[in-house]
Amino acid sequence: MSILQARRGNILIADDNEANRExxxxxxxxxxxxxxxxxxxxxxxxxxxxxxxDLALLDVVMPRPSGFVLCQTMKSNPETLLIPIILLTSLNSxxxxxxxxxxxxxxxxxxxxxxxxxxxxVHSLLRLKQFTDELDNAETVLFSLALSIEAKDPYTExxxxxxxxxxxxxxxxxxxxxxLRVALRRGGLVHDIGKLSIPERILLKPGPLTPEERKIMExxxxxxxKICAPLRSFRNVLPIIRHHHEKWNGSGYPDGLxxxxxxxxxxxLQVTDIYDALTTDRPYRKALSIDEAFAIMxxxxxxxxxxxxxxxxxxxxxxxxxxxxxxxxxxRDH
Length: 334
Prior knowledge:
alpha/beta; Rossmann fold; Hypothetical protein af1432
């Protein structure tokens, strides 16, 4: 990446002091940055919501809201979480800096701003932002490839999206960390990406697979893991991709893991995967009811295929959701 490429970017300067805005803006514009200014927190928020900001310089004491509050708002929103923020401040106490860090600030600059320090920090943060954007693009490509597999079969339309949502909701119910819930969301979308390597004559075969064909099909978990392994952000997704076809009794693939050797996130995804498959139409049968689906799943738990505790949690979650929908409909009808 060249220095010129790293310097290109849209930079927001939010400060209620016109002289400060002009001074900092002139320093950045002279280096080729596109500068956008705002006179208070509300105006800055409108600019940020426009979606074209690569970095924000926020005055700590500007009004409506302050730089601290706006920084915290941006870092709490998934849409703006990764935009680098530099707080401009004349406050020098440790307590103020700690407060800024707690709000999610990426860096601080003291007023009056030193030109060389400003340019160095902006350059560094924009360079990091460019790497982050490239990572996001790589993830987007993976998601698109994964959905291309789903598109080959009209009966699986929407399956990955539903699976992603079910898994995240179940992970939340089970108290999983935010990091693992993100892995479940991604895993729901890309768990079968290894099927890109499976010949369509096997992938879309309407009847039972031969032993040789099944052996080829079972490689999709290992291949999927290899496809996604280069992305560091997918380190918690890889166990889901590789192990979502393991079984509680050790009869699954690819590694024959048994019981709690199977990662919890993989067990969550496999149970939601089965539930969604049973409750949607297939070429050989109509969608089953919720009760019918869980009756089958409980029988499979008796065969030690799945983690029974997770099946129970999923059933409770689905029943709670159905009760909420029915209750909401009844209240609207009255």
